[in-house]
Amino acid sequence: MLDQLSVDSKKYIILPHFSFKGDDIIFLDKYKYFVAGDNFKLSNTEKINFLLNEGVIIRKRIKQVANKKCKDKILIIEPHPDDFVLSASGFVLDKEWRDVKVMNIFSKTLVANFPWSDKFFINESEFEKIRMKESSFAIEQYFEFKFESLRLPLAQKRGYENNFHARKTKSEPCLVEMLSKKIVNEMEKNNYDVLLCPLGVKKHVDHIVAFEACTLAYEKIKKQKNNFQVVFYEEYPYARNKRLLLERLEYVRSFFKLKKIIVKVNDYLQLINDSIMIYRSQFDNINSKQMLEVIKRDFEIVAIEEGNSENDKGNLFQRYYEIEKIL
Ligand SMILES: [Zn+2]
Questions:
Q1: How far is the CA of 89 from the centre of ligand 1 (A)?
Q2: Number of domains making up the chain
Q3: Full domain range(s) for residue 55
Q4: Are residues 83 and 40 part of one domain?
Q5: Ligand 1 mean position to 227 CA, how many Å?
Q6: For burial by CB atoms within 10 Å, which of 74, 77, 154, 243 has the most?
């Protein structure tokens, strides 16, 4: 299988966690993902389609011509590995940037949430390595953007409670301040024009910490740089829940005047899907075609909600929110 694939290496890339032993597919060097057996006789095209659908390989990225010319530099804050590809990549792909950097905050996530844990064991540090490998593969190799992780420990380990409504948190003000300092430093060092950050839908504590740090950084940088822009992204899959989204928006709107930004993502659907498939350690029960349908549906629903007219049919949108001013 691998030999035949290498013929097509101009078209396809094998994802970092997979290797081949004859016709068998091995996941993370630990688990026989697929045992071909004697009856596994497929043509080369069928094999490629099988591997594509299983998320073992993806198409090499063909650089899309961005819809909008843009001379700006953008910094994206991602609480966890995969938040960028799931929720924010459409905004970035829509424009031609001078510089793109993704800053990941929390690299360590609960190994109890590892979806493959019923099949084989990994420890916490292995899980972190796996996730970092996915992110650097997706962001640096696939998209050719810059990537950095601050590698902070997971929320539960920091002793957070679930209740996290206060804007300025008393439980750990220094984490938000420390993070916001790091963001400000990075902003000043590389003079970014746009900061893209999570909205905090569903109030996941790590996302709230990122939101607080970003807004604190905004208040500081805005004083020095007039045309500086902060844009929030809705987090998926949480933002599918309209009630949670509206609740969060109402809260954020009590501090900031927001302007909605609608991005048409029709041209980036396959790219977004392929980049999500890179994070294969995060799911074991959904294949590439199913994932494509899921994200397409998400983008269609946004199009419907945003007053998609009849002649707009087939349009796929993502929604973002720009801070217009501090209230
Ligand atoms: Zn997240």
A1: 14
A2: 2
A3: 2-59
A4: no
A5: 28
A6: 77
Residue 232 CA to ligand 1 centre (angstroms):
14
For residue 79, the CA-to-ligand 1 centroid distance in Å is 5
Burial 254-290 (b: 16+ CB within 10 A, else e): eebebeebebbbeebeebbbbbbbbbbbbebeeebee
**Tokens at residue 77, please?**
């804050």
- How much distance in Å is there from the Cα of 38 to the middle of ligand 1? 42
Report how far ligand 1's centroid is from the alpha carbon of 46 (Å): 35
Collapsing DSSP states into helix, strand and coil, what is residue 112? helix
Residues with CB under 5 A from ligand 1 (ion): 79-80, 83
Q: What is the 3-state secondary structure (H, E, C) of 246-264?
A: HHHHHHHCCCEEEEEEEEE
Are residue 236 and residue 108 in the same domain, yes or no?
Answer: yes
pLDDT at 5: 58
Hunting for tokens 């991005």 — which residue is that?
A: 263
Question: What is this structure's pTM?
Answer: 0.91
pLDDT digits (tens, 9 = 90+) for 45-64: 888 898 999 999 999 988 77
Domain boundary among 59, 77, 104: 59
Cα of 6 vs centre of ligand 1, distance in Å, is 35
Judge whether residue 97 has pLDDT over 80: yes
> What is the predicted pLDDT for the residue at 232?
98
Rounded to the nearest angstrom, the distance between the alpha carbon of 83 and the centre of ligand 1 is 5
Q: Is the pLDDT of residue 83 over 60?
A: yes
Indicate whether 13 and 160 sit together in one domain.
no
Same domain for 143 and 22: no
Q: How far is the centre of ligand 1, averaged over its atoms, from the C-alpha of 70 (Å)?
A: 28
Residue 268 has pLDDT above 60, yes or no: yes
Give the residue-averaged pLDDT of 243-251. 95
**pLDDT tens, residue by residue, 190-218:** 999 999 999 999 877 889 889 999 999 99
* Whether residue 192 sits in one domain with residue 154: yes
